[in-house]
Amino acid sequence: MAQAWTADDFGSNESKVIVAAPVIAELNMPRFMASGDTSRLTLDITNLTDKPQKLNVALTASGLLELVSDSPAALN
Asked: Coiled coil where (predicted)?
């Protein structure tokens, strides 16, 4: 909703607005892991636009985590 006013007049208008990122990335991984465990992590990428996207994706790890697959990757 928007409102505006002056000393002599006033008005308002209302419109629906969608607020969303054009691309959403969600990393899925186990809730708990112990030292020495291995797991497969998945990255779900959703394009919320009406247009095709070309993306470059790179994953990195720190601390006790180590990635054993190739990174980066190009997505079309």
From this structure: none
16 belongs to a structural domain: no
> Which conformational region is residue 36 in: left (phi greater than 0), alpha (psi within -120 to 50 degrees), or beta?
left
Q: Is residue 50 part of a domain?
A: yes
In a domain, 13, yes or no: no
* pTM for the full predicted model: 0.59
Tell me how far apart the alpha carbons of residues 55 and 74 are, in angstroms, rounded to a whole number: 6
> How many domains is the chain built from?
1
pLDDT tens, 17-71?
Answer: 888 899 999 999 999 999 889 998 888 999 999 999 898 888 888 888 888 877 6
